[in-house]
Amino acid sequence: MRGNRQTSSDRRGRGLPGGRAPSRARLRPRSAAARLLLALLVSGPVVALLTAVPAPAQPPGPELFAVDPRDPQELWAAIDYLVQTRQAAKAVPYLERFSKAEVSDEALAAIRERYGIGSILRLADDRATARYAEPLVARFAEASRRYATMPERLAALTAELTGSPQEQNFAVAGLREAGPYAVPAILEAMQKPGVPPEARALYVKNLGRLDRSTVPALLAAVEADDPAVAADAADALGRIGEPTAVPFLTYAAAAPGTPAPVKEAARAAIARLTGRPYGSRGHAPERVLSDAAWRFHRHEVEFPSDPVIVWAWDADRKVPAPRAMKKADAERALGLKLADQAVRLAPGDLDARAARASLALEGAVERVGFNDFPGKEQAAFDAAAKEGPGVLAEVLRRAAADGKDDLAAAAAMALARDIRPEDLARDGRPHPLVDALVAPGRRTQLAAARAIANLDPKGPFPGSSRVVPALARFLAAEPPPRAVVIDSNANRGSQVAGALSGLGYYALMELEGGQGFLAAADSADTELVFVAHALEGNRAWTLTDVLTNLKRDARTANLPVYVYGPLHLDVERPSIPRNFPGVKFIVQPVSPEVLGQLLGGRPSRLTPADRSRYAAEAASLLAKIAGRPDGPFAADLAAAGPALIFALNIPESRESAAAALAEVPTTGAQRSLADIVLDPAYEAPYRAAAARHLARSIARFGPLVSGDQETQLVADASSEPDAAAREAIAAAVSSLRARASGNTRTKSDASAPAPRAPGR
């Protein structure tokens, strides 16, 4: 075959890969001249020495080349020789020419076959040639891939699979170079009319001798319409020995409608891959499928590249076909496929349905962006809502625990569509929406608070006191996200806390487990908890105690929890993820950069536009709550007073904040409203609205304004130039006079100020 070194004359023209050239180390003579001659005479007498040169201390350089290297083979012979003889700087002109030359894939493949990948990688060892190493490695690799997958080459190699044992061995070696692209060629040959049974058996046997790179294409072939092809693909997968194929074989092994030959082959393959008879693994098929779907959803499956080549069965061509996809799309497509199969096997399985709904909902949000959801993905939103409260509550819980803020918020929005106020107090425990008020994600918190406020519950329910504080958090300046580190070793814990601080977290370290738990539960801004794998000298709480309390308390149950320590904690402490779902192991980080890679990025922060919009909505919801003085949240409004006062100066939220402050029975709330009314820097319409809210506050709670404020209000009631504002201020003064008898302070305590000029 072109570009392959043939080992004997009887194999010429057969399209078979040749053996490797003998080791260069074994053939290298001792003298420098002989080394030069061997290095340059690699493909015939293309470069030669003019005369014999005695062995000098320094190996001969290009100045002694009889002819200047010209074609790709000659150029690389010179490059390889000069680099190996430590004359890398002299190889640069030849590298320049080689890099700019148009070299065929066949020629590049032949050079790589002759010299090996080490000849290219050695370029990185010298400063003079290092910049050529990476682009040339990529160029050779891509050329080798294209060459290995040439249709005529694959056809020639596939034809040899039914030949002698030696021919089969050579063909399998060549087809392995093509990776998954060898599978369609072999299946196509197998399905040709007139293929005798003994030839088909050889095709199937050699299909199972390919390497693990062929697994994606073979898994696609398990879904072939022809049961014989599907069974042969399953059989090959079992003999190749890649355990990650088990979930993708599970549906064929368990589904009632699977043809008997395919079911038998899939079960035999699973037994071979797991080392146990099918059905004795202790996990129901739907659980195997849903667990695998969650792994894709959580980005726990490694892919060789991005984009990813995903294989699917082409019913028209009757072979597997590749399709390039972004990594995120591939994760979602494969996860959805497995989750859907799990639901088909067990339609009532909550875990499977939650996995399917979660993957579909996240995909919809990512397609249009959170701010355009559900408006531009109404069909996906409706489909999610139809899953029902039980499934959506599980989606919300898992998304919050996984730190998927957008998904959790979308699940909260869908869950809110089909619940009633009485559902909030149904079983005596906080509803999932209530738990979401303290989830580690601002969008989730607001979506949950919005849903609960809009339900307009008439009475208290478990966790009802969390609603107002959750909304109030959106009115203040956004604090940095908190991370709690629990470690009895101060030096080790400080290192982890420092790495978290470098990522933008406010890191709080506690030496004792109980204090660490309280620190995590204390603030809804806590986004992460890190716990040392060994709490040395900790007499109060062990690691198990810390994890138990974190996962049982509603305030911390949804927080991402990481147990850090040395490598292989999953082997040393296998019971932790089993007993505490959602807890993850992480290698102790040594820097913010390393920690960022382990966590998958820095903490998400709201954009300024999002903060303004969310503050306005939170203020509006608080105003709505304030308008229901008999509701379950009225008693909590006083605690939101400082945040509402702060929001009076935010243009997007100030009017709603003023309306809410009218229902807050504190001196600070009423006097802040009076300050707005009396400040001429504010627009007249805003001051008029504040005056109306001030009048309501005085009517409800009596006069709490200062003496100076009262005196100025009386003056402005007649001197305010804006008619609407003047009328509203007069109403506030009327409320003051109506409640004067209940005020311990008398108007005579305040001196009358001079009226303001009408044109102020």
From TrEMBL:
Lineage top rank: taxon: Bacteria
Pfam family for this entry, one: HEAT_2
Entry-linked InterPro entries: ARM-like, ARM-type_fold, PBS_lyase_HEAT
Spans annotated as Disordered: 1-27, 736-760
Protein name (Swiss-Prot/TrEMBL): HEAT repeat protein
Taxonomic classification: Bacteria, Pseudomonadati, Planctomycetota, Planctomycetia, Isosphaerales
